[in-house]
Design brief:
about 25% strand; single chain; alpha+beta; 2 domains; globular; 11 strands; about 200 residues; 4-stranded mixed sheet; 3-stranded antiparallel sheet
Length: about 200
């Protein structure tokens, strides 16, 4: 329930204060979780879809041949106020009997459970998230309107897409998910978040 959260305002965004907490946790590893968070696909802005389609020929070599038809990559366009264009579309979900979920996002490679969009970017010397949908890159951090929070109370986490693993040493959550928070808050916003903890120490 977001109503019970305490918020820190940074760059006109309300950041969940729990992200300052130190917990004995570390990030998951793809080999362990098999990219469970990618099993149901993701909603993305139409601008992101268009960028992916513009790079379709670069992406196809990193997908199984049966997924090379880009007309089958997306489905379910709808209005969505949280997206820049005001409209969003979902990535298609395909059957994958090699994954314990039985299905995955069309872009999740069965051979290594890496995202084909991320692999394409890396192979072509780009930032690994240059083609990746915003909410994919952000997970398990999420946004809702002006709120930024750790999305650890949802169906994905319960089913197996938990992006945290037990660790011996407690680490602040904002350090564990530094890359995601820099993405959503910007470099200055992330540094401001760090300074709040310094001021509290």
């Amino acid at each position: 329930m977001t109503e019970s959260r305490e918020w820190i305002v940074i760059n006109d965004r309300r950041v969940d204060r729990r992200l300052l907490e130190a917990r004995p946790t570390r990030r998951c590893r793809t080999a362990e979780c098999q990219s469970w968070c990618c099993t149901g696909g993701v909603w993305l802005d139409l601008g992101e879809r268009d960028k992916i389609l513009a790079n379709a020929e670069l992406i196809k070599p990193h997908l199984p041949p049966e997924r090379h038809d880009e007309t089958g990559w997306f489905e379910g366009e709808d209005e969505h106020p949280d997206y820049p264009t005001g409209r969003a579309v979902g990535t298609s979900v395909v059957a994958d009997p090699t994954h314990r979920a039985g299905c995955t996002c069309v872009f999740l490679r069965p051979e290594d459970r890496y995202c084909a969009l991320q692999v394409t970017s890396l192979v072509n010397g780009q930032h690994p998230w240059s083609l990746k949908p915003f909410y994919c890159a952000l997970h398990p951090i999420t946004t809702e309107y002006d709120q930024v929070m750790l999305d650890d109370d949802n169906e994905i986490y319960i089913e197996g897409g938990n992006c945290q693993r037990a660790a011996e040493t407690a680490v602040p959550l904002y350090e564990v998910f530094e890359a995601e928070l820099r993405l959503v808050l910007g470099e200055g916003g992330y540094e401001a978040l760090k300074q709040i903890t310094v001021g509290q120490s």
